Each structure stands twice: as structure tokens, then as C-alpha cells.
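Schema walkthrough. Field components (list of strings):
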Amino acid sequence: MAHEAAPTANTRLFRPGYAGHNQISARTLGFWLYMLSDALLFTALFASYAVLDTPMNAAGGPIASQIVNPIEGFWQTIAILGSVTAYSLSTVSMKNGKRGGTALGIIASIVLAVVFLAFGIHDLTALAAQGDGMDRSGYLSAYFVLILTHAIHMGIGILWMLVMLVQIPRYGFNEMVVARMLNLRMFWQFQATVWVCVYVYVYMIGA
Amino acid sequence: MAGSHSDPLAHPEVQQGGALRYIAGFISTVLLMGAALIVTMRHDLAYQSFVELVGGLAFLALLSQAALFYGLDISRAQIWKSVSLILTVPLFIITVGLTVWMFQSLDQRTMVMPSSAAAATQPTLLQ
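Field assembly_structure (string):
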């Protein structure tokens, strides 16, 4: 075991510039750990949904089989997976040092993400317009919160991509931009993972 | 953790990305979800079997994403991500599983509903 100085109040866990510490590795691992905690947030929402997904908690309002359409959900699945694949391919362009290809992949990813969100928002607004909003029953509260939480994540991802579209031409592929692109790739892939769970649990098992 | 690199594009996290891998991740997940959709639309399985089959297909889709999208493996660059995920997955299962288990008991003891209403509705995990 190596002999090192005993830690003191001034000990630093991470030192930028030190050859043994890598900014990109530290940032991606840190963001990965954040995403696992974000996944636990979704786990809590899934648990709540499971508890409230009963006719009693529908309080006379609609239940899952009356409001979800597995076929429409499949188009959403293709849209979000297409968006994730487009963004992931943009990082392959980044690997090859191509700014144009990277930007193109990001733009394609944003377009597909907007298509995905348009489906979801259309469904939720149609439900609310017919009086079945999130305050109609416990079940609908759980349904709206689950879908909206995922949609908000998607919105933040789109915003992040727009920021990267500005930063790539401005700063090039420097260490910070590359780390942000990699973290966004994980974040975006995570949205597809959550959606697979939502699609199977809400749209299929509930149908 | 990987060592330091002067060129950020030479970092293992950047270099691990591959077009074929991502396209394979897209195709495999779409196919598995398509198979689950067909099972759902046919409505010819008992609820328990249906949940098990669709859940199994979803599990395969998640595994496919872990390997092909996230690129998780036991390489030096990815090992800590893989380990942290493996340590976190039981928390997901415990959170959802224990909650459903507790409320299933509560539901059966307290949420008595008319048998006609119960017969008319789709069963759920709690029931």
C-alpha cells in the first residue's frame, strides 16, 4: 500500500491539472451517480402509480385502459429511441472531430424529441379538456405526474442540446464541451430507458 | 477511472461510441417493444402470464440499452458505472416491490368494492 500524507482539513479530493485526476472521467462518473438518484425519483413515482392504479382510486373517473393507447405509445417509443440514437450518433461524429455532423445529429435529435413530446402533450391536454385532469382522481394524479416528470426531463434535455449547439462552434471540442456532450448522451439515453418502463408498465400492462 | 489525456477526444468515454452499436441498440429495443406490443394487442394470455412475458421483454430491452447505448461493461473505464448500477438496481426493486406488497395487503383489507365493479375492470398489480 502506498504511503501518502495523512488527510487534513486542506486535503483536496480532486485537483484539476493533476495527471492522476481526469476531468472527463470525474464528471461522467459524477453525473452517472446523479442519474441513478434521478432513477430513484422515477422509482418512487412508479411505486405511487402502482398503488393508485386501482378502480377505487379512479374515483369514478377513467382508468388506464380507457386513456392509454399502446399503438400510439409505440410511435412515441420509436420517436424517443430515434432521438436517442441520433444524439448518440452525433457523439460518434464528435469522436471523429466533425462539428457539422455533431450539430446535425443534435438537430435531428431535437426534432424527434419534439415529435415525442407533441404526442404526450396532446394526450394530456385532451384528457384535461374533457374534465379528466390531474385533479380528477388519485389515479389520474399519479398518471399525470409520471408522464409530466418524464416530459420535463425531456424539455431540459432539449434545452441542454440547444446550449451545446451554441457551445460547439464557439469553443470547439475542448475538455468542458466534450464532458458536457458525454453527460448529455447519458442523460438522453436515460430518458429512453425511463420511457421503456413507462410504456410497458402504463401503456401495455394498463391497456 | 481512466488516466489523463491531453486530447479530450482521445478519452475512452468518447472512443467507446460506435455507430453500429447505437443502431443495434435502436433496432433491438424497437423489436423487443414491438414484440411486447403484439402480445398486448392479442389479449390471449392470462394476466399473470401476460405481465411476466411483457416484463421479460422489457428486461431484455433494458439490458440491450445498458450494453449498447450506455456501453456498460467491466472495462477499466466503465467498471464503476457498472458496479454502481448493480448496487442501485436492488433499491429499485425493493422500492417498487415492497410498496406494492404493502399496499396489496392494505387494499384487500380496506378497499372493498362491489363485485360487479371489480368484475368489470382490468386487474392491476395491486389486485
